[in-house]
Amino acid sequence: MVTFKNWKWKAGLVAAVAAITLTGCGGAGGKSGDYPKKPIVVVAPSGAGGGWDKTARSLTKVLSEAKLVDQTMTVENKPGGGGAVFLADYVTQDKKNPYKLFVSSPPILINNLKKEGNSPYGYKDTTPLAQLTKDFGAIVVKADSKYADITALMNALKADPTKITVAGGSAPGSMDHVISILPAYKFGIDPKAVKYVSYDGGGEAIAALLGGNADVIGTDVSSAAEYLKAGKVKVLAVTSAERLSGDFKDIPTLKESGIDAEFTIWRGVFGPKEMTDDQKAYWEKTLKSLNDSDVWKKELQSNSWEPEFRSGDEFNKFLDDQEVLLKDVLTALGMAK
């Protein structure tokens, strides 16, 4: 005979077992055991061939090859406005979607700080997960360009800026634009007088250079590396504090050339604003394991990237500091909002 007391005890036991099982599986609360449970998309907010695209593809390849993520990972290209078009969609439509991440770099700050083409959204509307690498800017011309060094180019720009077309893979006032005009600004040229043409991604900017539609481009070292190796371009200067190694060992820095300018390009991974603590912890652990892996170290070397890892609070603090620095630069260039 089943008494009310026995029934109540058994029902309580069943409920307790169910709760424990649900907790162990992650349940509706999104515990770490429940995530990730479906394919993950990593967005490169640009066209193919640039630094964001290469970072996203290297990231997903190594995470899969090293078996750090069990789920399928794919890359999507979402060009437009130097990342601003994608970010607007992401912040408004994917703020609770932990299965869509994206890679970014200083433009996520610049687009929010600049006066023209301003984005209302920035890194504070996302969850910064980790900085993975650092790169530097490069001033690049075709291999057969008449400009033998950065000083010759700057002198020509100073004499008549309307005769030289400068291009980059992002919108006016964005990272490639800053890289392109920073040497001119420091050389005493009015940055507003420099004719700048923007393309959607570093790959398109280099194509414009090689096709004769631009005289010089400002881009990142990693995007220029394969073209330098192939003998298709000359790199007149890099924005690092000291000379780089490998294929860039003979390229002078801007400072060496008498132009007092430096610019570091960091690249990192971001998620939606409304991630759970467990989801953030999963990526903190996973991306740290990526950074420590030999496969990733080889990937860095093959792309001429330098490692610089920050996660969680450290990455957020770094972005806070970068925001102050870039606001100062844009203000000096007359481009701050």
Automatic annotation (TrEMBL):
Spans through the membrane: none
Pfam families linked to this entry: TctC
Keywords for this protein: Signal
Keyword Transmembrane attributed: no
Keyword Signal: yes
Signal peptide span: 1-28
Database matches in InterPro entries: BUG, Bug_dom1
PROSITE patterns, alphabetized: PROKAR_LIPOPROTEIN (PS51257)
SUPFAM superfamilies the record matches: Periplasmic binding protein-like II (SSF53850)
Record Gene3D superfamilies: Bordetella uptake gene, domain 1, Periplasmic binding protein-like II
Highest taxon listed in the record's lineage: Bacteria
Family, as annotated: Belongs to the UPF0065 (bug) family.
Designated name of the protein: Tripartite tricarboxylate transporter substrate binding protein
